[in-house]
Amino acid sequence: MSLSFIPLVGLPRRSRRRCPRLHSVKASMPSVVKVGILGASGYTGAELLRLLAQHPRAEVSVLTADRSAGKEMGAVYPQFAFGAFGKSLPTLVRSEDVNWASAADLVFCCLPHATTQDIIASLPLSSGLRVVDLSADFRLRDLSSYERWYGGKHRAPVLQKEAVYGISELFRESIRDARLVANPGCYPTTAQLPLIPLLEKRLILPTDIIIDAKSGISGAGRSPTQGTLFCEVADGISAYGVASHRHMPEIEQGLTDAYGSHDPVRVSFTPHLMPMSRGILETIYVKTSSGVDADQMRKCLANRYADEPFVHVLQKGVAPPQTRHVRGSNNCVIQVMNDAISGRAIIISALDNVVKGASGQAIQNMNIMFGFPETMGLECQPTFP
Amino acid sequence: MSLSFIPLVGLPRRSRRRCPRLHSVKASMPSVVKVGILGASGYTGAELLRLLAQHPRAEVSVLTADRSAGKEMGAVYPQFAFGAFGKSLPTLVRSEDVNWASAADLVFCCLPHATTQDIIASLPLSSGLRVVDLSADFRLRDLSSYERWYGGKHRAPVLQKEAVYGISELFRESIRDARLVANPGCYPTTAQLPLIPLLEKRLILPTDIIIDAKSGISGAGRSPTQGTLFCEVADGISAYGVASHRHMPEIEQGLTDAYGSHDPVRVSFTPHLMPMSRGILETIYVKTSSGVDADQMRKCLANRYADEPFVHVLQKGVAPPQTRHVRGSNNCVIQVMNDAISGRAIIISALDNVVKGASGQAIQNMNIMFGFPETMGLECQPTFP
Amino acid sequence: MSLSFIPLVGLPRRSRRRCPRLHSVKASMPSVVKVGILGASGYTGAELLRLLAQHPRAEVSVLTADRSAGKEMGAVYPQFAFGAFGKSLPTLVRSEDVNWASAADLVFCCLPHATTQDIIASLPLSSGLRVVDLSADFRLRDLSSYERWYGGKHRAPVLQKEAVYGISELFRESIRDARLVANPGCYPTTAQLPLIPLLEKRLILPTDIIIDAKSGISGAGRSPTQGTLFCEVADGISAYGVASHRHMPEIEQGLTDAYGSHDPVRVSFTPHLMPMSRGILETIYVKTSSGVDADQMRKCLANRYADEPFVHVLQKGVAPPQTRHVRGSNNCVIQVMNDAISGRAIIISALDNVVKGASGQAIQNMNIMFGFPETMGLECQPTFP
Amino acid sequence: MSLSFIPLVGLPRRSRRRCPRLHSVKASMPSVVKVGILGASGYTGAELLRLLAQHPRAEVSVLTADRSAGKEMGAVYPQFAFGAFGKSLPTLVRSEDVNWASAADLVFCCLPHATTQDIIASLPLSSGLRVVDLSADFRLRDLSSYERWYGGKHRAPVLQKEAVYGISELFRESIRDARLVANPGCYPTTAQLPLIPLLEKRLILPTDIIIDAKSGISGAGRSPTQGTLFCEVADGISAYGVASHRHMPEIEQGLTDAYGSHDPVRVSFTPHLMPMSRGILETIYVKTSSGVDADQMRKCLANRYADEPFVHVLQKGVAPPQTRHVRGSNNCVIQVMNDAISGRAIIISALDNVVKGASGQAIQNMNIMFGFPETMGLECQPTFP
């Protein structure tokens, strides 16, 4: 399934007036995109490189990592210390030492939450540089919500207004022309891909949506903390951030939009840490609308994603998805089942938090932004065993 | 908290008429209990031995394992191939070769579900032999429910009627005098310990109780199956038995009793397989009764279990329990939190499925049955890291 | 030097007359190779598919799996139940139901050791079908050695004589024209890649070579056995097959050839099972020739593999390779260090047992056999984290 | 033979005059030992508590942790947040705030290497306080060796001279009367238990002893470092400290004493990090003395340890020990096999690095020092699965 240009043609929202930057972007559409990564020394940075290595039209031109500036990537991630691709990578530099106007066509921003606003605001977006931000800084449209959940005033409110929330399958049209894409969180992607179409079609009720989420440890990043040491997380599981995780408002924003009522949709969201490196599985408990059962929900999702290369709805009777069957791939796989209690259904949604939950979706968004086939660089099959 | 004899004295329910076998049992109360294990080659059998090694008043007199008859335990479980205790263990024999009337005072039955009824029916219970059955065969009081969930007619319905369901903390009085204790399932123990007191006190509603359960692999047993191979379960997670797991009716039976209404309490129960050997964590989503919040629920449970050595309710604000903090111990640890959606609460309950979820509770029940302090043989602290 | 090098030198076997198929093979070199997999339901079969999905000139035309015949691959490996590639795969069939002469240009044989000889002997090699055998059946040139280690007479001795041992980097020339390639074992590949050049150049002594090998569990295959259940291998390690593993004679055969003396080179080889799915790390303890130290050994290997895309020798001072840094890739990474005892050195060699140790090297050999670029389909970077 | 054996033999050091404290120690032998732990917030501190919970004659009277002073243990290790034992523990205090003369009879010192000397030197050993030091600070008799390997001058050389190296089974007599026991390293215990008797009896050669050691992650401690994060060590293995690990001189010191020649015994020692929490397995490759094979070696060790409750030599033909079969116990299990190369043998030795490799052996030494049965508090069986 390529990202065909057909829907782009003749749509009023792409008129010169509404999106004046669009045509200049198109005029400068490079045959090879020069890609920079801000904060390349984290897990999402490394994963971007793994995937970009196979992207025929992306060239990694800049890698920044303030504390590791001057080092080669192979010193930070040994898997890039050998092999033609690893050796071809630019040396890590400090962000402030880059002339962004000429260094890159697109920047993936992999910096920690709350540190990103100032840096992105300082980038020359007006010169055509485009940004996919993997942090949470531009995801919450409501600035007061941002302030409440992230503990500080938003420092780039104008940019926030422009930012496009980037679940590729759902917001493709807006992503295409965006200068700044807010790449969604891993938990929110896993939840919204099944829930948004179901709420749009009103097949499920907007109340008492319960999302029990299980994630691998890579989501916690590479900074040393006691809580993510091997001995602290191996051979055991735990809940964290109960009723207080920052991905909750992000999910609620998307579901409220989808349901389209004045009342915000609230969710019960409980993340858990699993003794595995990658993968998210969400078990979502919902109430169905009157007369609706799992079959109709499954059909709705199967139709919605029929032509999508990365979102797969399993057929009736097929065992629910396992994270290991999407590991390393950009897939999100979904199954829907009736609950034992009538009037209820269970949705199970699985993806790789580092790929479709972060770097893979970021590249998918880049492909949309630059008119490349959407699967470019993302064709690897899941790694199992 | 020892299992004091005080409640035993002078209670009418222990009158000769209602429980004639009781006095003969008491008369023959041995200072050391001779213990047999039927099906000692499985994980629950091995775990019973690990714990019994430290029980000063239990002596392992018989170990059966039909396919491994003639072998030493150390050949089946290498950890018993050395050390004084391991070397003291009797050789594995076939069940039919045991003279049960003289061989043991108590039998732990660790056979697979559905194979147990005939064997237990053939044991000389009338001669004073007592049984703790770790299989599911005697847990469901309703024979038609047994037939529906286990796929066959119950073959020992009279014994089923006599069997006492053995969550130690909740049914201690009945366990004390029982000839046959149906040791509860691991998932049902984890769920019922918090839910039964809350339903009894009507602090939560009996509707839409959602139990998202996560278990280590040992619960699947030691028989080789593709689905429990290391490569099939490592570094990934999955749901199974969605809306169709056999522990669901067992939980519903207990909750219905606790709530005490005519309408059965139904639960949504979804188990998941985790890449770890031991441990169960259940995240339970409930609706609170009007005016009730997590604090009241927590207090109710803290009061209920204040004197219990193995069930612990965490204080407000303490992070929810992790399975690794109960690993190897007989503890069940519970926390209660308000959900983000008002009128809802989240209960998190953790235990070691092989100990409190199986062999540990079986020994706790033995201690109750024989008047030993309830913690005897079960004093080991959790193993972490 | 190679398994088949000696007979190749100056022998008419490579002449036009003795090997007429060679040119016909070339003449009929397809732009797309039709690939069959015998025994596709095992881990090496699944891994071949993962890699072939990205091979632009291979088309999977036949998949056999006798016990799963009639099923789709997605029913056997859920990661192929969705996605364009998975859905494009042929249905599993019984081997005997395939018309091999027309069905495929190349067959990867992924059947268990000792079952392969009859099946390969029955294939129409004379019609141009070529075979890469991933079993051990054609690896040992000495038939009596085969009989001793595999417990039965070799049933295809003529084919055995023709088979080419397929470490791609070392025996490329012979592989190119082979009808039957014996794809090397995972442990032997890891050991021979560093040891063969060092023995050829006589930088190390041929005595007391000690290979301490550590492997992930996938090497044991997907058949259910107690010893590879999650609970039996997680959170612990063990040695097995001490001084008696079948890969020992395979390694010794290669090293003896390389050293080129009349006395066979013997090795001390001890494999260990690690709680991980993929990866082999071998720590090899050797005595150096007089005056030789790790620097010279490292240089020798760096030179030998300077132009190889998949074998990488780390620079002096770089930390030794970790299996997780080659996971999912076809790389073998090697480091050499002086031992604390003078006159000794330590070689550490790491690869992914399912890729360079099996399916990846099989595809690399296919690429050699069909004149494709050797990296085709094998360009994926390691997956870390 | 022991670190301190030679000076003990016939030397006045054990006489009443040189060791007046000895009898006063005996005179004041308490029926319950008051135990302090310096540095209780690390893994060895937590493990001491797990074991001491079951020790009937030890009472935990002081716990220090400078950075966590003022907290309860349950806040640092949640497994001690509930249960009678956990709640009975003293609050963490700063070391300098303790009046050691009255606070404890014995101190376990669990501080990091190189920080211990000053603190132990400041303790009132002359008042009868006795110390088991789990750090490496007092293990190396040769002060210049200490300086070379630990990077600084030893700051308590007189105490160092008095310290007794504490492998319980080998140096029991010296430990009994020691004021300061240097508790051995985990790797050195695993290696020396089999090697010392074999070298004493000259069954193996003192040259080219190769120790390939594999350890769980807990040995690296609880301080957050990138290298011990879950994602950095899960599902992969690696060697580290090749030919440069600090446990090498400790092993060599013991082996040199045992062999009793003027030439130091040198070993090749390579540690590896395994994706598991606990356990050490060492595969030791040795040359046998002329005419000696594995049977004689095994018999020698079986005789040496026949009466030992914690060191077990497996019988001929029994599979080599696995770390998971000693997990959580104080056992060291050993097997000896002939190598495939004649004149060589392979020894496999396994223990739990946190127990027999650290805290368990420390308690065993305490038992020796205070005249308790050596198994007291250490009777728990291995935890498997």
TrEMBL record, chains A, B, C, D:
Q: State the source organism's domain of life.
A: Eukaryota
The metabolic or biological pathway listed in the UniProt record of this protein is: Amino-acid biosynthesis; L-arginine biosynthesis; N(2)-acetyl-L-ornithine from L-glutamate: step 3/4
The UniProt keywords, alphabetically, are: Amino-acid biosynthesis, Arginine biosynthesis, NADP, Oxidoreductase
Record: active site: 186
Catalyses which reaction? N-acetyl-L-glutamate 5-semialdehyde + phosphate + NADP(+) = N-acetyl-L-glutamyl 5-phosphate + NADPH + H(+)
Q: What is its EC number?
A: 1.2.1.38
* UniProt GO molecular function: N-acetyl-gamma-glutamyl-phosphate reductase activity; NAD binding; NADP+ binding
GO biological process, alphabetically ordered? L-arginine biosynthetic process
Q: Which Pfam families match?
A: Semialdhyde_dh, Semialdhyde_dhC_1
PROSITE patterns, per this entry?
ARGC (PS01224)
User: Could you tell me which residue ranges the Semialdehyde dehydrogenase NAD-binding domain spans?
Assistant: 34-178
Under HAMAP family, the record lists: ArgC_type1
Question: What name does the UniProt record give this protein?
Answer: N-acetyl-gamma-glutamyl-phosphate reductase
Q: Which organism is it from?
A: Chondrus crispus
